[in-house]
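Worked example 3 (structure in, sequence out).
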């Protein structure tokens, strides 16, 4: 799988992914349910931050979770074990060279994966070949172009734009949420349905101020500082102003808005070639 994870594999990033998943679990996964006994392939499971919520909410479902990063898989195994879950197995595998027969799984699940791939349509087609007839796919992605805050700040917006450009330079797309319908359609999936999931944060929701605004979004932007400076997208003073203004929007009179997109679809009529 051709990919470049722009956020890196540091302990800080692992913690950010965990905070993000825990904060967003109800918003993104309240309707992620699979029939008991079915087999689900989670593509690009990372450190298991989403997996623990999926497996916990679907105890009678068999999850196979793959990723190309061995260190992330080790963390994922530990997290699943700590949660006492026994319906998950992890494999180090590339989606384009999967160690599975075609038509192995009833369902596919992607979360925050396609945005990091140079060819998301090819990845969806490769995964589609692993679906049994009548199988489904669920895809969740963000879209950094959907972010805005109060007080509005051009400096903060420039920092967010730096993240989008850094990810694009690495071959990804931080604006992919708006593309889920055409991507899934182009990959041969049917009955595609996309559901926007709006995050709105103000001081009346302190758990979201911490869990999303600070620990998820601002932490994500802060993580590309060195890359943005090295690529000449900003300078130190401009970056610091932008980070100040991002944090300013988490104060008592500030607000944050962001939209995630969740798509579900049916597999192709025939095995994809």
């Amino acid at each position: 799988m051709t990919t470049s994870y722009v956020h890196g594999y540091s302990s800080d990033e692992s913690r950010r992914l965990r905070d993000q998943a825990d904060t967003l679990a109800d918003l993104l996964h309240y309707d992620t349910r699979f029939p008991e006994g079915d087999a689900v392939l989670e593509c690009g499971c990372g450190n298991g931050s989403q997996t623990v919520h999926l497996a916990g909410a679907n105890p009678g479902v068999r999850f196979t979770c793959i990723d190309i990063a061995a260190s992330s898989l080790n963390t994922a195994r530990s997290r699943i074990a700590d949660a006492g879950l026994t319906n998950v197995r992890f494999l180090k595998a590339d989606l384009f060279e999967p160690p599975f027969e075609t038509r192995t799984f009833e369902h596919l699940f992607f979360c925050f994966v396609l945005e990091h791939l140079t060819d998301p349509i090819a990845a969806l087609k490769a995964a589609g070949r692993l679906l049994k007839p009548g199988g489904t796919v669920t895809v969740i992605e963000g879209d950094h172009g959907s972010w805005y805050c109060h007080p509005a700040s051009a400096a903060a917006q420039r920092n967010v734009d730096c993240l989008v450009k850094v990810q694009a330079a690495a071959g990804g797309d931080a604006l992919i949420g708006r593309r889920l319908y055409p991507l899934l359609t182009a990959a041969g999936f049917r009955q595609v349905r996309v559901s926007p999931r709006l995050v709105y944060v103000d001081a009346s929701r302190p758990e979201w101020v911490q869990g999303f605004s600070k620990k998820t979004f601002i932490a994500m932007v802060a993580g590309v500082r060195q890359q943005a400076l090295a690529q000449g997208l900003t300078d130190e003073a401009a970056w610091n102003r932008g980070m100040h203004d991002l944090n300013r929007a988490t104060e008592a009179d500030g607000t944050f808005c962001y939209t995630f997109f969740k798509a579900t679809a049916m597999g192709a009529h025939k095995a994809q070639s």
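Notes: Strands lie at 39-43, 62-67, 88-92, 105-111, 131-142, 148-150, 190-201, 255-266. The CA atoms of residues 196 and 261 lie 5 Å apart.
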